[in-house]
């Protein structure tokens, strides 16, 4: 079966080495986590460090201070509407709720400032400040903010309050979602981790090629070749 011993042995060695490294990667040798988990944590931390927009969005929100709103928002469930009611009442807005429908009136700029403040707490991993304020788990509170603001944005669009709706969308995508998605992750700068990031990217390329060469040399050792078929004339 083996046509070229040298190539076959090299292919076997590369294959064994590949799976040894794979075993190491899936073992908890990286601070109690496997290599993939450690790499995921690293890149999430770097992503968080480059996704901070709270102060920029807060400046936009100041342009809406003093502008009044009167909105009716339908939430996906009564429980979610109840959480929204708790948040808005705690923030001293005029609120009435009927099952999954929430009506609110007040200063739209102040509303968005409150949403940014809670998003900042989440970004800084200070969820206890949100729990103590509203009496509900912090991620549930932020999920309520997200659903309410999406509905409020649509209501503003229906009222042709396009400038308010645009700023609200920025608050949703660059504050609420960022705070929620990166909660519990410690932010790191790419400048501080450039060495390990470079190593991870170079290793990924080399490891991918490693497997390709292992297969190539195994097939070469077995004498298997790929040749273009001969073109048949009609």
List keywords for this structure.
single chain; 234 residues; mainly alpha; 2 domains; three-stranded antiparallel sheet; 9 helices; 3 strands
Describe this structure in words.
The protein has 234 residues and is mainly α. The protein has two domains: 5-48 and 188-221, no CATH class; 57-181, no CATH class. It contains nine helices and three strands; from the N terminus they run H-H-H-E-H-E-E-H-H-H-H-H. The chain has a three-stranded antiparallel sheet. A hairpin with a 2-residue loop joins strand 2 and strand 3 (101-107). Helix 1 (5-25) packs antiparallel against helix 9, helix 4 packs across helix 7 and helix 7 (138-158) runs antiparallel to helix 8. The protein is elongated, with a radius of gyration of 28 Å. The model has no long low-confidence stretch (mean pLDDT 90).
List the helices and strands and how they pair.
Blueprint lengths: L4 H21 L9 H15 L4 H8 L6 E7 L3 H13 L3 E5 L2 E7 H16 L3 H8 L3 H21 L3 H20 L12 H28 L13
Mean pLDDT: 90
Number of domains: 2
Topology, number of strands: 3
* Poorly predicted regions: none
Estimate percent helicity. Answer: 55-70%
């Amino acid at each position: 079966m083996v046509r070229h011993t040298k190539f076959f042995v090299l292919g076997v060695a590369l294959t064994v080495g590949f799976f040894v490294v794979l075993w190491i990667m899936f073992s908890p040798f990286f601070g109690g986590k496997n290599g993939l988990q450690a790499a995921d944590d690293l890149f999430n931390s770097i992503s968080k460090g480059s996704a901070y927009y709270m102060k920029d969005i807060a400046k936009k929100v100041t342009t809406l201070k003093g502008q009044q709103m009167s909105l009716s928002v339908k939430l996906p469930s009564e429980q979610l509407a109840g959480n929204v009611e708790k948040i808005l009442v705690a923030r001293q807005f005029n609120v009435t709720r009927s099952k999954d429908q929430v009506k609110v009136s007040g200063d739209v700029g102040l509303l968005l400032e409150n949403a940014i403040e809670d998003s900042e707490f989440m970004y800084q991993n200070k969820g206890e400040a949100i729990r103590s304020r509203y009496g509900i788990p912090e991620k549930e509170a932020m999920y309520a903010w997200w659903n309410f603001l999406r509905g409020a944005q649509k209501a503003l669009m229906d009222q042709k309050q396009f400038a308010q709706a645009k700023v609200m969308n920025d608050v949703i995508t660059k504050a609420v979602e960022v705070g929620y998605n990166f909660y519990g992750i410690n932010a790191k700068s790419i400048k501080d981790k450039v060495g390990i990031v470079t190593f991870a990217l170079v290793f990924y390329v080399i490891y991918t090629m490693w497997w390709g060469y292992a297969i190539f040399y195994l097939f070469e050792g077995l004498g298997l070749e790929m040749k273009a078929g001969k073109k048949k004339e009609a």
